[in-house]
Amino acid sequence: MINIKRILCPTDLSPHSEDAVRYALALSRAHEAELILLHCTNDADGEEKLAASVLDQIDPSDSRWHLVVVPTDHIDEGIMAQAQQRHVDLIVMRSRRRPHRAALLGSTAESVCRSAPCPVMVVHTDERDFVSDAMSVELKRVLVAYDFSDYSELALKYGLSIAQEHQAELHLLHVLAPRSMNEPEIAWYPTKGESAYHTAAYRLQKVVPGEVHLWCGVRAVVSEGYPYREILNYAENNEIDLISVGAHGAGFGMRALFGSNVDRVLRQAPCPVLVARPLRPTMPINLTLPQTRLIHTGL
To answer: Is the pLDDT confidence value at 81 over 80?
Structure first.
């Protein structure tokens, strides 16, 4: 199981950022993890504003939370530097919906997802919410987009761990290229020489360890089409609470100007999206951290 010990939640103190803070608080309580609330600003009053924005949500006696202010104009770099310095296991942040004509500009969340030293959970304001009013995590269905790559294997690892932790149903979705199959339904026990559809279905069943079925309902599905469309449609039609995807290196970064599958899922998903990335806790030698101010801790 994935062990989440430290969660980093960047906030710009806007009302929309409160959603990310809610998720981060609920997840930190569920996993008994340390929570670091981060505000990147050159505002001299940033410390007071950050403290005032969260005092009604945090118990001052809780020793597992910290408020940190980083003076910087490069918010994405500040977030990633703090994640590395503090050996963060998960970043939880908000991304705003943007019109298609603005897609080429990217966003801070997408920038962080491409280069973060750990997985990133991205939330939006107008989406399916798995945090209750009592600040508890109520995950029922987790969708893992799986293409048999190492990146999707990492997405499966995190999806399995989260599903186990919260007793959620696990959905696996593999998308074949358009016009690569003819059969309308999945045949779970293909014979030799079967189509790409049957082969993918058989392989998809094999990626889930047998013991998982003892504590988690598993549904494996193969579809055909454009990956991001199939992922979004499946999540919408099956009331998915969390999508777990792997960030492909070149496919995610180099094609970002045209919108990779991960970019598009991040922008349009009807629920939070977890971009699974390998942990990189070691600080690069050439990375210069801005001076940080720890303004409050429960310790």
So the answer is: yes
3-state secondary structure of 152: helix
Q: Is the dihedral of CA 286, 291, 297, 299 positive or negative?
A: positive
Picking from 273, 161, 151, the residue whose alpha carbon sits closest to that of residue 208 is 161
* Cβ within 8 Å of residue 193, ≥6 positions away: none
Tokens representing 225 are 């089409």
pTM of the entire predicted model: 0.84
Residues 6+ apart with CB under 8 A from 266: 95, 109, 110, 113, 122, 273, 275
pLDDT(171) > 90: yes
Rg over CA atoms, the chain:
20
Q: Which of 10-19, 60-69, 251-260, 288-297 ranks highest by mean pLDDT?
A: 10-19
Complete DSSP assignment for 44-113: TTHHHHHHHHHTTTS-TT-TTEEEEEE--S-HHHHHHHHHHHTT-SEEEEE-----GGGGGG--HHHHHH
| Residue-level length of the chain | 299
User: Which ranges of the chain does DSSP label H, i.e. alpha helix?
Assistant: 17-30, 46-54, 75-85, 108-115, 150-166, 196-206, 212-215, 227-237, 249-253, 261-268
Q: What does each C-alpha distance from 266 to 3, 52, 100, 246 come to in angstroms?
A: 24, 30, 13, 12
Q: Give the Cβ contact number of residue 277 at 10 Å.
A: 23
pLDDT for res 130: 87
Separation CA 288–CA 17 (nearest Å): 27
- Three-state SS at 129: coil
As a whole number, mean pLDDT of residues 36-62 equals: 80
6-297: CATH, from 2.60.200.30, 3.40.50.12370, 3.30.450.40, 3.30.70.920: 3.40.50.12370
